[in-house]
Task: inverse folding
């Protein structure tokens, strides 16, 4: 199957009450062993990260660590909102083997494909 | 003096961010000579990390979002009352061979310069990189700090 890990558009509409959330930018790669997903969530550390797997959907939620508030704001471009994004998983992914690593505000999700979908040779018995 | 580009906070929405920088880019196309555009263009050569500047009684605090970098890839310098952040983010080699499904992240060189509104003690500036956020604390010089003047009543 070629349809991969994709963004799930209905997830945004599902939220009935207003919550300030931003969508983290991601890169997604596929290798023969599985997928790798990188998500940028500056200001989030390991403790603020919540990854939930439900059915064939994976939800990434990143809560920003509190920053000491200092004085008055002179210039502001950064958002204070938490991050959230939902992806639909390729059925080839072995959900039991998904692993996550957080490094300098960047989440790296490793989503290995299950052994049964990898190509293999079948030996013919006599 | 280098540019201090303003970007709206909607930069966190990737679609909007690119749109607004495209618009900025077009504005500048008509305002600046070509050579200038080629040198500073974000579309051609890089990205612009979002930053905040705060001020309290004793310090200016600059915070910039630089997720997924290494400390040695970030360069901070102070020159003539202007703070410069620059560096280069490289794509990881292990993914160069892989099939790409989504590329929303920016790679390449970046540079931002901000003019500080008051003098700072250059030798006491501290920079810390944590959770993908670079925090630079710039203590004001004694002369630049606000002073309380006692009023004597005779």
Result:
């Amino acid at each position: 199957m070629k349809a991969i890990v994709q963004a799930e558009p209905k997830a945004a509409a599902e939220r009935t009450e207003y919550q300030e959330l931003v969508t983290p930018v991601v890169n997604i790669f596929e290798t023969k062993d599985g997928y790798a997903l990188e998500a940028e969530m500056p200001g989030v550390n390991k403790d603020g990260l919540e990854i939930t797997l439900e059915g064939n959907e994976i939800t990434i939620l990143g809560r920003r660590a509190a920053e000491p508030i200092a004085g008055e704001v002179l210039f502001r471009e950064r958002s204070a909102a938490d991050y959230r994004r939902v992806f639909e998983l390729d059925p080839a992914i072995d959900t039991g083997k998904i692993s996550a690593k957080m490094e300098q505000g960047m989440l790296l999700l490793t989503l290995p494909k299950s052994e049964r979908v990898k190509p293999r040779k079948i030996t013919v018995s006599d | 003096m280098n540019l201090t580009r303003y970007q709206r906070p909607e930069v966190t929405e990737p679609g909007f961010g690119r749109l607004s920088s495209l618009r900025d880019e077009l504005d500048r196309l008509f305002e600046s000579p070509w050579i200038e555009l080629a040198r500073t263009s974000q579309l051609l050569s890089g990205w612009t990390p979002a930053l905040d500047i705060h001020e309290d009684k004793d310090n200016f605090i600059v915070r910039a979002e630089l997720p997924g970098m290494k400390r040695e890839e970030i360069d901070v310098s102070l020159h003539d009352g202007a703070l410069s952040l620059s560096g280069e983010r490289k794509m990881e080699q292990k993914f160069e061979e892989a099939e790409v499904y989504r590329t929303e992240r920016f790679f390449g060189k970046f540079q931002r310069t901000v003019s500080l509104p008051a003098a700072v003690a250059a030798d006491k500036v501290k920079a810390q990189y944590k959770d993908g956020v670079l925090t630079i604390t710039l203590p004001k010089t004694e002369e630049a700090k606000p002073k309380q003047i006692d009023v004597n009543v005779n």
Observations:
- The CA atoms of residues 91 and 97 of chain B lie 11 Å apart.
- The two ends of chain B are 50 Å apart (CA to CA).
- The helical segments of chain B are 14-31, 34-40, 42-45.
